[in-house]
Amino acid sequence: MLTAVAAFAGIALASGLLLGYAGVRFKTEGDPIVEQIDALLPQTQCGQCGYPGCRPYAEAIAAGDADINRCPPGGEATIENLADLLGVEPKPLDPEAGEEKPPEVAWIDEDVCIGCTKCIQACPVDAILGAPKQMHTILEDECTGCELCVDPCPVDCIHMVPLEGDIEHWKWPAPDVTPGLEIARLQEGRQSA
Amino acid sequence: MKETPTSRLWEFHGGLRLEGHKALSNRTPVRPAPIPEELVLPLRQHIGAPARPVVEVGERVLRGQVIARPDGYVSTPVHASSSGEVVAIEDRPVPHPSGLDGPCIVIRTDGEDATVEPRPVALDGLDPTEIRNRLREAGLVGLGGAAFPTAVKLNPGPGRGTDLLVLNGAECEPYISCDDRLMRERPEQILAGARVMMQVVGAAHCLIGVEDNKPEAVESLQSALETDGGEDIEVLAIPSVYPTGAEKQLIKVLTGREVPTTGLPADVGVVCQNVGTAAAAARAVHGGEPLTSRIVTLTGHGLREPGNWEVRIGTPIRDLVACAGGYADTVGRLIMGGPMNGFALTSDAPPVVKATNCLLALPEAEVTKPADPMPCIRCGECARVCPASLLPQQLHWHIHGREFEKVQDYALFDCIECGCCDMVCPSHIPLTQYFRFGKSEIWAREQERKKADVARARHEFRQERLEREKREREARLAKKRAAVKKGAGKGSEDKKAAIQAARERARARKQAAEDPPAGDSGSE
Amino acid sequence: MRFKTESSPHVGPPTAVSVVMRRVLYALVPGTALYLWFFGWGMAFNIVLAVGTALAAEAAVLALRNRPVRPALGDFTAVVTAWLLALALPSLAPWWLVVLGSLFAVVLGKQLYGGIGQNPFNPAMVGYVVLLISFPREMTLWLAPAGPGESGLGLAATARFVFTGELPAGMDWDAITMATPLDALMTGLNQQQTITEITASPVFGALAGSGWEWIALAWLAGGLWLLYQRVITWQVPVAMLGTVFALSLVFHAVDPDTYAGPMIHLLSGGTLLGAFFIATDPVSGSTTPRGRLVFGAGVGAFTYVIRTWGGYPDGVAFAVLLMNMAVPVIDHYTRPRVFGHGEAS
C-alpha cells in the first residue's frame, strides 16, 4: 500500500517536473493577439464588418466585441484561420456583413469621370490617382476591391470588374473527384430525379 | 570535392520503364513544314516577363526581324519567323493548360520568306558576356519544353564555378522523337553548340546523356565526335527510366551529384541544356540566325502520318496537323508535350511556340477516363516510383484536407509533376493534378498575403497622412486665431496692407479681361 | 477541333484496387485448400458465412450512408477482410460466431471510420479480437488435423454442427477437438513441462504443429507470389519474420526448455498468415518504406512477447492492432529523404 502511494506520488512528481520543464523550454513568445488577428485579415479595409478598417476589427475581435464571421472578403478561409488561431468553432459568414464573392478591382470609366476627387478621398489605400477636374485612374495592383469608392461617385463611373480570368491569374483547379464516390452518387441521384 | 566526369553512371530513386512508342514518329527524316498563311507569335513563349512589341500593325517584317523586345532580364525577344505584314497585335489562343488567350503578334506571310542578313561571328576569343548577349538577341530559350531563357541559364552567377556542361538528349517521355531525329541528323550542330556553351560557362567537359532506347542517336553523336577528334565531350547511353530526362535526375545519373532542393545545377558545378538548345545556339553564333524554327514531333494514333517536321515558330497547330495527314477518326485528346507531363489543348487553334517539342494526338480509347477514383489505400506504390523520394500518398491526403502548411512540410514543391505516381495508383487518384492544384493554391495564397501586407502598409500610411494633415490644419488654424486675437498690433497692419494689395491686383486683372487686346476683337 | 482538357498524365494506370485484392485472394487459395484438406468442411462454412455477411453488411452500411454500393462491393476489399477473419476462426465455429465477427470487422472496423482507406485498425483483426475476448470458449473449437482428406466430420455433419450446435450421435467433443500447437505449448509450460516433452505430443509434427506446418508453408508460398506480383512489399514480412526468428532464437538458445525454437514460432499460429496477409494491409499499416520495417518489427516483437509472457497463446492479432495505433508516429518519423534535401532534414 505504502509503495503504491509512494510510486504514484513519484510518478506525479516526475510528470509535474516534466510538464514544468516543457512549459519553460517550449514556451512560445507570440505576437500580441491583435497583430496575429490583423495578419489573418485580408486588409481590404472595406468596413463591411462594421468597423472602420481591418485593424479596428482585429482589435474588436481581440476584445471580444466582434464575432469572427464578419469579414466577407476573407470568406470561409479567413473564418477558419481565425477560428484556428483563437481556438473557437468556425461558423458561417454573417449574412448581415455581406457575402463572399470572387476578387474584383475597381475600374473608372474615364470618359465619364468628371474629376470630382470624391473617390480619392474614399479610397482607404490611396489606390486612385488624379487631381481636381482631371479624370482619375485606379492603380489596379494596389486596389483591394473594397468598393468604398463606388458610392461616393456622383456620375457612377466606377465599376467593379472581376480580377481573375487571365493567364497570369489562372490556377490549376482541384481535381473534380473529392470525395469521389459522393459526387458520383449525387450525379446518379440527379440523373434519376 | 567534385569528381571529374567519368563513364560511371548513378541511379535516382523510383522512376518507371514506360513503353516508348517512339517508332511511330522516328523512322522518317525531319521534313520542312510549309510556311503558313498566318503566323501567330505569342509575346510570352518563355519563362519570365512577356516581350514588348516593337512593330506596328501594317508594318512589313522580314524573317529574323525582332518584332518584340525583352522586358527585363529574365525575358527574350520574339522574331518574325517569315516575311510578311503585321496584321494584328491582339489576344489570341495560346498553348496553355488554361485554354485562355494571350497577347500575340499576327503576321500575314507573303510567301517570299525574305530574311534579315545573318550576322555570323567567329567563336574564337569571344567573351562569355558577348556570347550570352548573342544568344539572348537570338531569342534562345530551353527547347526541351521548359523555355527558360538560355542566356540567363548560362549565367550561373558569381561564386558558382561550373566545370561541367550536361547536354540532355534523354528524351524520356514516350512518343517524342524530335531530339532523337536531331541527334541522328545534325550531330555536328549539337557538338558545335556544346562548345559554344562550354565557352560561356567555362566548363572543361561536356557529357551528353542519351537514353539507351536511341542507339542510332548515340552512334551518330559518337561518330561525329570521332570525326571531330575532341576529347572534351563524351556521349553516354543511360538506362531508359522515365523521368531520367528531368534536369536534376539526369545530373544525378550522369555525375552522382544531387542538386539541392532550393538550388540550381550550378550549385554542384553543372549547367544543363537540351541538345536542341545546343544546336540552336550553334546556329545563333556560327550562323548568326535567330530562333525562328524548331523541330516538332507530330505523333500518336490520332494522326494519320506521324513524323517530325521543322516548323516555323508561330505556325498554327491546325496547319501542322494537315502536314501529318490530318486526324484519325478516333482522336480524343490533343497534347502539347508528352503523355506524362504535357498539357492538353482545348483546340488546335494555338500556334507552335518555342517550347513545343511535340504534338500528340491520342485516340479516345488510349486516354485515361476521369473514372471514379477510389479512396487511397496507402499502398505506397506512388512513393516507390517517385523520382523525388516524396510521399505522394501523404501529400494527397493533406491537399485533400486543404492542410497547406503540412503539405509544404512534406516538400510539395520538390514535386516535378512527372506523373509517375498517377501511373501506378490502383485507386486511380489524379495525384499530379492534386499537386498542381496544391502548388498554385499555395502560390495564390502567398500572393494574397503579400497583397494584404501592401494594402495594410498603404492604409496605415494614409491614416498617418490624414492624421498629419489634420494636425497641420489645426496648427494653422490655431496660429490664425492667435494672430486675430493680437488685435491692432503690427501684424494686423501688415495684413491690411497685404489685403489691399491683393484687391488692387484683382481689380487690375478684371479690367484687363474687360478690355481685350485690339487684335483679338475681330475674331469674335 | 475542340478537345477536352485534363491534367497530365494522359495515359492511365494499368492496375486497380480490385485487381490487387483479387491477387490477394488467389494467393490465399493454396493455404485455404490445405485447411480444408486437414480440418474438413468447417473452414468452407466459415468463409462462405463470413464473406456473405461482410458483403451484406458493407452494402447495408453504404446504403445507409448514401454512398454508391456497387463499386465498393466490386473492389473485393470486404471479401479479403472476411476471408482473413474466417481463416483466423476455429474450423468448427458456430454460424453466429462467424457472422458476428464479420459484422464487427466490416461495420465497426471499417465503415464506421469512413469505409475503405479510412480505417486505422485492421478490420479482420478487430473482428477477431472482439470474438476472442467475448467468446473465449467457442474460439478454441479446433478439430484435430485428421490428415489428408479424412476429417472427422462429413459435410452434412459439419453443417449440422455449425447451424445447430449438435454433434452426430456417438461423438463427443473430446474425441474430435484438439488444442492448437500454441495452446498446447502454453498449457504444457504452465504444467512445468519442458519444450521437448510438449513437442513430443501428437499435436506436433515434423517442423511445428502437425498439419499446421504445411498450411503455414502454403501461406509462405502465397506470400512470396504476392511479393513477386508486387502486391505487397518485402519490408513488413521480412521485418516481422526476422524479429520473431531472432527473438525466439535468442531465448531458445538461453533456455531451450522454456522457450520454443524459431521453427515452432514461425510455422505456428498466425505468424506466416500475419506476416504476408494481415500486417501487410496497407490501409492500417505504415506507408513509408522504413516505417514498414519498424511496423513489421513491432508486430513481430509484440507477437513473440504476447505468446511467451502474455495470457493468450497467440499474439498476432493484438500485435497488429497495437502497431496500428503507432502508425501515425512511425510514418511521421520515417519519412524518406527527399531528393536534394540534406541528410539532416
Structure overview:
The complex is a heterotrimer of chains A (193), B (524) and C (345). Chain A contains six helices and four strands. By secondary structure, chain A is mainly alpha-helical. Chain A folds into two domains: 85 residues, 3-methyladenine DNA Glycosylase II, Chain A, domain 3; 63 residues, Alpha-Beta Plaits, CATH 3.30.70. A two-stranded antiparallel sheet of chain A has the order 1-4. In chain A, a hairpin with a 7-residue loop joins strand 2 and strand 3. Chain A starts with a helix and ends with a helix. Chain B is of the alpha/beta class and 524 residues long. Among the domains of chain B are: 236 residues, NADH-ubiquinone oxidoreductase 51kDa subunit (Rossmann fold, 3-Layer(aba) Sandwich); 60 residues, no CATH class. Chain B contains 15 helices and 17 strands. In chain B, helix 3 runs parallel beside helix 5. Chain B is globular, with a radius of gyration of 31 Å. The N terminus and C terminus of chain B are likely disordered. Chain C is globular. The mean pLDDT of chain C is 88. In chain C, 53% of the residues are buried. With 345 residues, chain C is mainly α. The chains are: A mainly alpha (193), B alpha/beta (524), C mainly alpha (345). At the B-C interface, helix 6, strand 15, strand 16, helix 9 and helix 12 of B face helix 1 of C.
Strand-residue proportion of chain C: under 5%
What is the count of β-strands of chain C? 0
- Quaternary form: heterotrimer
Q: What are the low-pLDDT stretches of chain C, counting only 5+ consecutive residues below 50?
A: none
Q: So how many helices of chain B?
A: 15
Mean pLDDT of chain B comes to 88
If classified by CATH, what would the architecture of the domain at 22-33 and 122-345 in chain B be?
Answer: 3-Layer(aba) Sandwich
Compact description:
The complex is a heterotrimer of chains A (193), B (524) and C (345). Chain B is of the alpha/beta class and 524 residues long. Helix content of chain B is 36%, strand content 17%.
Secondary-structure blueprint of this entry?
The complex is a heterotrimer of chains A (193), B (524) and C (345).
Chain A: H1 2-25, H2 33-40, H3 54-62, H4 75-86, E1 104-108, H5 118-122, E2 128-129, E3 137-138, E4 158-162, H6 180-192
Antiparallel strand pairs in A: 1-4, 2-3
Helix pairs in contact in A: 2-3
Chain B: E1 31-32, E2 38-42, E3 52-53, E4 60-61, E5 66-69, E6 78-79, E7 84-93, E8 101-109, H1 128-137, H2 150-153, E9 164-169, H3 178-185, H4 187-201, E10 205-211, H5 215-228, E11 233-238, H6 247-255, E12 270-274, H7 275-285, E13 293-299, E14 307-312, H8 317-323, E15 331-336, E16 343-345, E17 358-363, H9 381-385, H10 392-400, H11 404-409, H12 420-424, H13 431-485, H14 490-514, H15 518-521
Parallel strand pairs in B: 1-14, 9-10, 9-12, 10-11, 13-17
Antiparallel strand pairs in B: 2-8, 3-5, 4-7, 5-6, 7-8, 13-14, 15-16, 15-17
Helix pairs in contact in B: 1-4, 3-5, 4-5, 4-7, 10-13
Chain C: H1 17-39, H2 42-64, H3 70-74, H4 77-88, H5 95-108, H6 123-134, H7 155-164, H8 173-176, H9 181-190, H10 195-199, H11 212-228, H12 235-254, H13 262-267, H14 271-278, H15 289-309, H16 316-333
Helix pairs in contact in C: 1-4, 1-11, 2-4, 2-5, 4-5, 4-6, 5-6, 6-16, 11-14, 12-14, 12-15, 15-16
